[in-house]
Amino acid sequence: MSQPRQLSRRAALAGIGGAAVGVALGGCRCSAQRKARPVSKQSAGSSSAKRMPAVFLPHGGGPWPFIDERVFGLPGMWNKMREYMIKLAMAPPEKPKAVLMISAHWEEALPTVSSAKSPPMLYDYYGFPKESYEVKWPAPGQPELAQTVRDLLERAGMTTRADDKRGFDHGTFVPLKLTYPNADMPTVQLSLMKSLDPRSHIAIGRALEPLRSQGVFIIGSGMSYHNLRELFASMKRQQSVVNEDSKRFDAWLGEAMARDAAGRETALVEWQKAPSARACHPREEHLLPLHVIAGAAGNDAATLPYRDVVMGAHVSAVHFG
Known about the structure:
The protein has 321 residues and is of the alpha/beta class.
């Protein structure tokens, strides 16, 4: 077997973190006075559909499933994450009508929805082997669902945009290529807000909760630990040295998610008070998809079906419903 390509520090950090790209190109502001249309049955299925879960998952580093695993460190390190993502297809009680993905790798001033019928691939990582830029996941978009998302957010008093050029970034196609390898799942992306305000992201999720009863599987894709400097140091060591900051933060996360809806929302709003919070999230864009998912959870209890140590850091997935 040939030796894996060695990444520079700069390339590795860029690949793990990705660039937040995709300024809204084709969108338009929604008028606050515009009457919101009803939730589209065409786009999201009938209200008799079984309630879908809302899931926050860690998407790993760059294109990890599609390259030599030794690039990132110890062989087998990603096995549990890979297995978790494959089995994620069994989490909903029936096949979803569509996926609404909130990726840590897309930020806009306003909540922005991808509205292309056939979204392109967005390889928002750098310095990886050639084959990682040949990965395809040609799932369809769903403009009707995109409009429904905007309508629901507008009803909650938010101004939104649509982007008909935005492609699937690696926060979307990396996990979903494992979960839905046939690329037959209609998928729409929703951006984070550049403000990174925790309350605003919980409110976004709360407005979108009705979609879960209409066949839409809502997924937040980020990382429960995302300190690139420390992840790079662990990769350079290529040995299992557990990051104590991540251990403390992950323990807090489990305790916070065990609270009732009001308690966990308070914990997420005040997440910076958590043990080692800023050591684990120097910038919080990889945590905020969890805020959206917690908002969409309603009163559902949380479970943490995936917990692991990757690149020396504790990481977890959080499921509701």
